[in-house]
Write a structure and sequence with these properties.
binds NADP nicotinamide-adenine-dinucleotide phosphate; six-stranded parallel sheet; 2 domains; Dihydrodipicolinate Reductase, domain 2; alpha/beta
Protein backbone atom coordinates (compact mmCIF):
# COMPACT_ATOMS: atom_id res chain seq x y z
CA UNK A 1 0.00 0.00 0.00
CA UNK A 2 1.34 3.43 -0.92
CA UNK A 3 1.95 5.89 1.90
CA UNK A 4 0.43 9.35 2.01
CA UNK A 5 2.87 10.81 4.49
CA UNK A 6 6.65 10.54 4.31
CA UNK A 7 8.99 10.12 7.28
CA UNK A 8 12.45 11.57 6.67
CA UNK A 9 15.75 10.76 8.33
CA UNK A 10 18.91 12.84 8.02
CA UNK A 11 22.49 11.63 8.43
CA UNK A 12 25.39 14.09 8.75
CA UNK A 13 24.21 17.15 10.65
CA UNK A 14 26.32 19.89 9.08
CA UNK A 15 25.59 23.17 7.33
CA UNK A 16 23.28 21.90 4.63
CA UNK A 17 21.40 19.52 6.94
CA UNK A 18 20.29 22.52 9.02
CA UNK A 19 18.71 24.27 6.03
CA UNK A 20 17.12 21.07 4.79
CA UNK A 21 15.62 20.20 8.18
CA UNK A 22 14.11 23.64 8.45
CA UNK A 23 12.41 23.14 5.03
CA UNK A 24 11.09 19.65 5.89
CA UNK A 25 9.17 21.41 8.64
CA UNK A 26 7.39 23.53 5.98
CA UNK A 27 6.02 20.46 4.19
CA UNK A 28 2.47 19.19 4.87
CA UNK A 29 3.29 15.76 3.46
CA UNK A 30 6.51 15.10 5.38
CA UNK A 31 7.76 14.70 8.93
CA UNK A 32 11.33 14.91 10.17
CA UNK A 33 11.30 11.57 11.94
CA UNK A 34 14.95 11.02 12.89
CA UNK A 35 18.41 12.58 12.76
CA UNK A 36 21.80 10.98 13.26
CA UNK A 37 25.29 12.26 13.80
CA UNK A 38 28.62 10.69 14.67
CA UNK A 39 28.14 12.62 17.92
CA UNK A 40 24.99 11.83 19.96
CA UNK A 41 24.97 15.14 21.82
CA UNK A 42 24.98 17.01 18.49
CA UNK A 43 22.10 14.83 17.25
CA UNK A 44 20.10 15.53 20.42
CA UNK A 45 20.49 19.30 20.02
CA UNK A 46 19.61 19.09 16.31
CA UNK A 47 16.50 17.01 17.13
CA UNK A 48 15.30 19.68 19.54
CA UNK A 49 16.09 22.58 17.21
CA UNK A 50 14.10 21.10 14.28
CA UNK A 51 11.43 19.16 16.20
CA UNK A 52 12.57 15.78 14.93
CA UNK A 53 10.64 12.93 16.52
CA UNK A 54 13.82 11.00 17.38
CA UNK A 55 17.58 11.19 17.31
CA UNK A 56 19.85 8.22 16.87
CA UNK A 57 23.30 7.47 18.26
CA UNK A 58 24.75 6.50 14.88
CA UNK A 59 24.01 6.59 11.16
CA UNK A 60 23.65 2.77 11.28
CA UNK A 61 20.93 2.97 13.95
CA UNK A 62 18.94 5.50 11.93
CA UNK A 63 18.92 3.44 8.73
CA UNK A 64 17.58 0.44 10.66
CA UNK A 65 14.59 2.39 11.99
CA UNK A 66 11.45 0.85 10.40
CA UNK A 67 9.52 4.14 10.59
CA UNK A 68 11.86 6.03 8.26
CA UNK A 69 10.93 6.04 4.56
CA UNK A 70 13.77 8.06 3.09
CA UNK A 71 17.20 9.19 4.25
CA UNK A 72 18.79 12.49 3.29
CA UNK A 73 22.55 11.91 3.06
CA UNK A 74 24.27 15.20 3.94
CA UNK A 75 27.85 14.08 4.56
CA UNK A 76 30.98 15.19 2.61
CA UNK A 77 31.19 13.91 -0.99
CA UNK A 78 33.57 11.01 -0.28
CA UNK A 79 31.03 9.36 2.03
CA UNK A 80 28.04 9.60 -0.32
CA UNK A 81 28.73 6.18 -1.81
CA UNK A 82 29.12 4.21 1.42
CA UNK A 83 26.33 6.09 3.23
CA UNK A 84 23.86 5.70 0.34
CA UNK A 85 24.72 2.02 -0.13
CA UNK A 86 24.17 1.41 3.58
CA UNK A 87 20.73 3.06 3.36
CA UNK A 88 19.73 1.10 0.25
CA UNK A 89 20.92 -2.21 1.70
CA UNK A 90 18.70 -1.51 4.71
CA UNK A 91 15.68 -0.91 2.49
CA UNK A 92 15.68 2.89 2.65
CA UNK A 93 15.08 5.25 -0.23
CA UNK A 94 17.71 7.98 -0.51
CA UNK A 95 18.09 11.63 -1.41
CA UNK A 96 21.87 12.06 -1.52
CA UNK A 97 23.63 15.41 -1.69
CA UNK A 98 25.58 16.33 -4.78
CA UNK A 99 27.76 14.95 -6.23
CA UNK A 100 25.97 11.61 -6.00
CA UNK A 101 29.33 9.80 -6.04
CA UNK A 102 33.00 10.63 -6.49
CA UNK A 103 33.03 9.17 -10.01
CA UNK A 104 30.91 7.36 -12.60
CA UNK A 105 31.88 3.97 -11.23
CA UNK A 106 30.41 4.75 -7.79
CA UNK A 107 27.27 6.28 -9.31
CA UNK A 108 26.66 3.28 -11.56
CA UNK A 109 26.85 0.91 -8.57
CA UNK A 110 24.46 3.11 -6.56
CA UNK A 111 21.97 3.23 -9.44
CA UNK A 112 22.02 -0.54 -9.88
CA UNK A 113 21.55 -1.12 -6.16
CA UNK A 114 18.54 1.23 -5.97
CA UNK A 115 16.91 -0.25 -9.10
CA UNK A 116 17.45 -3.85 -8.02
CA UNK A 117 15.78 -3.09 -4.69
CA UNK A 118 13.01 -0.98 -6.26
CA UNK A 119 13.97 1.94 -4.02
CA UNK A 120 13.84 5.65 -4.79
CA UNK A 121 17.19 7.39 -5.33
CA UNK A 122 17.88 10.97 -6.33
CA UNK A 123 20.85 13.37 -6.31
CA UNK A 124 20.26 16.53 -4.26
CA UNK A 125 20.31 19.03 -7.11
CA UNK A 126 17.64 21.05 -5.33
CA UNK A 127 17.99 23.91 -7.81
CA UNK A 128 16.16 21.84 -10.44
CA UNK A 129 12.90 22.27 -8.53
CA UNK A 130 12.84 25.97 -7.62
CA UNK A 131 10.37 28.26 -9.45
CA UNK A 132 13.16 29.99 -11.44
CA UNK A 133 14.28 26.72 -13.03
CA UNK A 134 10.68 25.82 -13.91
CA UNK A 135 10.32 29.26 -15.55
CA UNK A 136 13.63 28.88 -17.39
CA UNK A 137 12.46 25.57 -18.86
CA UNK A 138 9.14 27.19 -19.87
CA UNK A 139 10.94 30.06 -21.63
CA UNK A 140 13.29 27.68 -23.44
CA UNK A 141 10.40 25.47 -24.57
CA UNK A 142 8.54 28.51 -25.92
CA UNK A 143 11.54 29.04 -28.25
CA UNK A 144 11.21 32.80 -27.76
CA UNK A 145 15.01 33.26 -27.71
CA UNK A 146 15.42 31.00 -30.75
CA UNK A 147 18.14 28.38 -31.01
CA UNK A 148 20.47 28.45 -28.04
CA UNK A 149 24.03 29.02 -29.22
CA UNK A 150 25.92 29.67 -25.98
CA UNK A 151 25.80 29.61 -22.20
CA UNK A 152 28.03 31.40 -19.72
CA UNK A 153 27.87 30.54 -16.04
CA UNK A 154 30.24 31.03 -13.13
CA UNK A 155 30.23 30.00 -9.49
CA UNK A 156 32.99 31.35 -7.29
CA UNK A 157 33.44 32.26 -3.67
CA UNK A 158 36.54 33.20 -1.73
CA UNK A 159 37.17 30.45 0.82
CA UNK A 160 39.63 30.96 3.65
CA UNK A 161 42.41 28.45 3.04
CA UNK A 162 42.12 25.61 5.54
CA UNK A 163 43.69 22.33 4.43
CA UNK A 164 41.39 20.40 6.79
CA UNK A 165 38.11 21.88 5.56
CA UNK A 166 35.70 20.04 3.27
CA UNK A 167 36.50 22.59 0.54
CA UNK A 168 40.29 21.96 0.48
CA UNK A 169 40.84 18.54 2.05
CA UNK A 170 41.41 15.97 -0.69
CA UNK A 171 40.44 13.10 1.60
CA UNK A 172 37.00 14.77 2.00
CA UNK A 173 36.65 15.24 -1.79
CA UNK A 174 37.63 18.93 -1.77
CA UNK A 175 37.95 21.21 -4.79
CA UNK A 176 35.78 23.72 -6.63
CA UNK A 177 34.72 21.41 -9.46
CA UNK A 178 32.90 18.82 -7.36
CA UNK A 179 31.54 21.30 -4.85
CA UNK A 180 30.29 24.18 -6.99
CA UNK A 181 31.42 23.56 -10.59
CA UNK A 182 28.67 20.96 -10.64
CA UNK A 183 26.02 23.76 -10.77
CA UNK A 184 27.18 25.45 -14.01
CA UNK A 185 27.75 21.98 -15.50
CA UNK A 186 24.23 20.92 -14.51
CA UNK A 187 22.82 24.09 -16.14
CA UNK A 188 24.67 23.29 -19.38
CA UNK A 189 23.28 19.74 -19.29
CA UNK A 190 19.76 21.00 -18.69
CA UNK A 191 19.88 23.52 -21.53
CA UNK A 192 22.22 22.01 -24.15
CA UNK A 193 22.45 18.33 -23.23
CA UNK A 194 25.58 16.20 -23.33
CA UNK A 195 28.61 17.89 -24.93
CA UNK A 196 30.54 16.56 -27.88
CA UNK A 197 33.91 17.91 -26.72
CA UNK A 198 35.24 19.11 -23.40
CA UNK A 199 38.22 21.42 -22.73
CA UNK A 200 39.25 22.48 -19.24
CA UNK A 201 42.08 24.13 -17.35
CA UNK A 202 42.61 24.47 -13.63
CA UNK A 203 44.77 25.86 -10.87
CA UNK A 204 45.39 23.80 -7.75
CA UNK A 205 45.53 24.54 -4.03
CA UNK A 206 48.42 23.16 -1.95
CA UNK A 207 46.24 20.20 -0.97
CA UNK A 208 46.11 19.07 -4.62
CA UNK A 209 42.46 19.94 -5.29
CA UNK A 210 41.37 22.48 -7.89
CA UNK A 211 40.82 26.00 -6.61
CA UNK A 212 39.96 27.32 -10.08
CA UNK A 213 38.48 25.45 -13.02
CA UNK A 214 37.62 26.92 -16.43
CA UNK A 215 35.63 24.75 -18.82
CA UNK A 216 34.64 25.07 -22.44
CA UNK A 217 32.12 22.59 -23.88
CA UNK A 218 31.27 22.17 -27.55
CA UNK A 219 28.00 20.67 -28.82
CA UNK A 220 26.83 18.91 -31.94
CA UNK A 221 25.13 22.06 -33.30
CA UNK A 222 28.32 24.07 -32.55
CA UNK A 223 26.77 25.70 -29.46
CA UNK A 224 29.26 26.42 -26.67
CA UNK A 225 29.17 26.51 -22.87
CA UNK A 226 31.74 28.63 -21.03
CA UNK A 227 31.74 27.62 -17.39
CA UNK A 228 33.83 28.41 -14.35
CA UNK A 229 34.17 27.46 -10.70
CA UNK A 230 36.55 28.80 -8.08
CA UNK A 231 37.17 28.96 -4.36
CA UNK A 232 39.66 31.80 -4.86
CA UNK A 233 37.35 34.76 -5.52
CA UNK A 234 33.82 36.05 -5.15
CA UNK A 235 32.63 35.98 -8.75
CA UNK A 236 29.24 37.27 -10.04
CA UNK A 237 27.56 33.81 -9.89
CA UNK A 238 25.36 34.66 -12.85
CA UNK A 239 24.29 32.70 -15.87
CA UNK A 240 23.45 33.85 -19.40
CA UNK A 241 21.79 31.78 -22.07
CA UNK A 242 22.10 33.25 -25.57
CA UNK A 243 19.87 32.34 -28.49
CA UNK A 244 19.43 33.49 -32.07
CA UNK A 245 16.62 35.91 -31.10
CA UNK A 246 17.44 36.92 -27.55
CA UNK A 247 18.95 35.93 -24.25
CA UNK A 248 18.08 35.03 -20.68
CA UNK A 249 19.90 36.18 -17.57
CA UNK A 250 19.67 34.16 -14.36
CA UNK A 251 20.50 36.70 -11.69
CA UNK A 252 22.95 36.14 -8.85
CA UNK A 253 23.23 33.46 -7.44
CA UNK A 254 22.11 31.83 -10.64
CA UNK A 255 21.75 28.27 -9.33
CA UNK A 256 19.07 29.36 -6.89
CA UNK A 257 18.03 32.52 -8.63
CA UNK A 258 14.84 34.34 -7.73
CA UNK A 259 14.97 36.63 -10.75
CA UNK A 260 15.15 36.00 -14.48
CA UNK A 261 15.46 38.68 -17.17
CA UNK A 262 14.47 38.07 -20.75
CA UNK A 263 15.99 40.15 -23.57
CA UNK A 264 14.75 40.06 -27.15
CA UNK A 265 16.65 41.59 -30.06
CA UNK A 266 19.09 43.18 -27.61
CA UNK A 267 16.35 44.95 -25.60
CA UNK A 268 14.93 44.11 -22.14
CA UNK A 269 11.57 42.39 -22.64
CA UNK A 270 10.42 40.98 -19.29
CA UNK A 271 11.61 40.41 -15.73
CA UNK A 272 10.29 37.48 -13.70
CA UNK A 273 10.44 37.56 -9.90
CA UNK A 274 10.31 33.96 -8.73
CA UNK A 275 10.60 33.56 -4.99
CA UNK A 276 11.22 30.16 -3.54
CA UNK A 277 9.79 28.80 -0.32
CA UNK A 278 11.92 28.56 2.83
CA UNK A 279 15.58 27.97 2.10
CA UNK A 280 14.65 26.64 -1.36
CA UNK A 281 14.95 22.96 -0.47
CA UNK A 282 11.19 22.85 0.12
CA UNK A 283 10.57 22.35 -3.63
CA UNK A 284 12.98 19.41 -3.81
CA UNK A 285 11.38 17.89 -0.71
CA UNK A 286 7.91 18.20 -2.28
CA UNK A 287 9.14 16.51 -5.48
CA UNK A 288 10.58 13.60 -3.51
CA UNK A 289 7.43 13.29 -1.36
CA UNK A 290 5.27 13.21 -4.51
CA UNK A 291 7.46 10.53 -6.08
CA UNK A 292 7.30 8.37 -2.95
CA UNK A 293 3.54 8.84 -2.50
CA UNK A 294 3.08 7.77 -6.14
CA UNK A 295 5.39 4.78 -5.82
CA UNK A 296 7.99 6.15 -8.26
CA UNK A 297 11.63 5.13 -7.85
CA UNK A 298 13.10 8.16 -9.59
CA UNK A 299 12.13 11.71 -10.36
CA UNK A 300 11.05 12.47 -13.92
CA UNK A 301 12.49 15.96 -13.49
CA UNK A 302 15.87 14.77 -12.25
CA UNK A 303 16.22 11.18 -13.43
CA UNK A 304 19.22 9.03 -12.56
CA UNK A 305 20.27 9.08 -16.22
CA UNK A 306 20.91 12.83 -15.74
CA UNK A 307 23.03 12.17 -12.64
CA UNK A 308 25.03 9.61 -14.61
CA UNK A 309 25.60 12.08 -17.47
CA UNK A 310 26.58 14.76 -14.95
CA UNK A 311 29.22 12.61 -13.27
CA UNK A 312 30.48 11.40 -16.67
CA UNK A 313 31.09 15.03 -17.67
CA UNK A 314 32.77 15.74 -14.33
CA UNK A 315 35.02 12.70 -14.81
CA UNK A 316 36.05 14.00 -18.24
CA UNK A 317 36.83 17.44 -16.78
CA UNK A 318 38.85 15.77 -14.00
CA UNK A 319 40.85 13.90 -16.66
CA UNK A 320 41.49 17.11 -18.61
CA UNK A 321 42.77 19.03 -15.58
CA UNK A 322 44.64 16.09 -14.04
CA UNK A 323 42.55 15.84 -10.88
CA UNK A 324 42.38 12.47 -9.18
CA UNK A 325 41.12 11.41 -5.78
CA UNK A 326 42.74 7.97 -5.76
N1 LIG B 1 22.55 21.48 -1.89
C1 LIG B 1 23.32 22.47 -1.52
O1 LIG B 1 23.04 23.65 -1.71
C2 LIG B 1 24.56 22.18 -0.82
C3 LIG B 1 25.19 23.20 -0.17
C4 LIG B 1 26.31 22.88 0.55
C5 LIG B 1 26.75 21.58 0.55
N2 LIG B 1 26.11 20.61 -0.14
C6 LIG B 1 26.59 19.22 -0.15
O2 LIG B 1 26.26 18.63 1.10
C7 LIG B 1 27.34 17.86 1.58
C8 LIG B 1 27.69 18.37 2.96
O3 LIG B 1 28.07 19.72 2.88
P1 LIG B 1 28.04 20.70 4.17
O4 LIG B 1 28.43 22.03 3.65
O5 LIG B 1 26.79 20.56 4.92
O6 LIG B 1 29.27 20.08 4.98
P2 LIG B 1 29.55 20.15 6.53
O7 LIG B 1 28.96 21.38 7.14
O8 LIG B 1 31.01 19.90 6.70
O9 LIG B 1 28.73 18.90 7.10
C9 LIG B 1 28.99 17.61 6.72
C10 LIG B 1 28.58 16.66 7.85
O10 LIG B 1 28.97 15.35 7.45
C11 LIG B 1 29.26 14.58 8.60
N3 LIG B 1 30.52 13.84 8.44
C12 LIG B 1 30.65 12.50 8.41
N4 LIG B 1 31.92 12.13 8.33
C13 LIG B 1 32.64 13.27 8.31
C14 LIG B 1 34.04 13.53 8.27
N5 LIG B 1 34.96 12.55 8.24
N6 LIG B 1 34.44 14.82 8.29
C15 LIG B 1 33.53 15.82 8.32
N7 LIG B 1 32.20 15.62 8.38
C16 LIG B 1 31.76 14.35 8.38
C17 LIG B 1 29.30 15.53 9.77
O11 LIG B 1 28.07 15.34 10.46
P3 LIG B 1 28.00 14.64 11.90
O12 LIG B 1 29.15 15.25 12.68
O13 LIG B 1 26.68 15.06 12.38
O14 LIG B 1 28.16 13.18 11.72
C18 LIG B 1 29.31 16.90 9.16
O15 LIG B 1 28.67 17.86 9.95
C19 LIG B 1 28.46 17.99 0.55
O16 LIG B 1 28.52 16.84 -0.25
C20 LIG B 1 28.07 19.18 -0.31
O17 LIG B 1 28.39 19.03 -1.68
C21 LIG B 1 25.02 20.89 -0.80
Amino acid sequence: MLKKHINWGIIGLGKIANKFASDINLSDTATLYGVASRNSEKAKIFKQRYNSIKYFNSYEELVKSPEIDIVYVATPHVFHFENTMMCLKNGKSVLCEKPLGMDSNEVEIMLKEAKSRNLFLMEGIWTRFIPATEKLIEILYSNVIGDVNSIRADFGFRAEYNPDSRVFNKRLGGGSLLDIGIYPIYLSLLVLGYPLEISAMARFAETGVDSFCAMLFNYQNSAKAILESTTEADTPIEAYIYGSKGHIKLHRRFHHSEKISLYLNGKPKQVFELNYTGEGYYHEIEEVNNCLVNGEIESGKLPLSTSLKLINIIDLVKQKIGLSYI
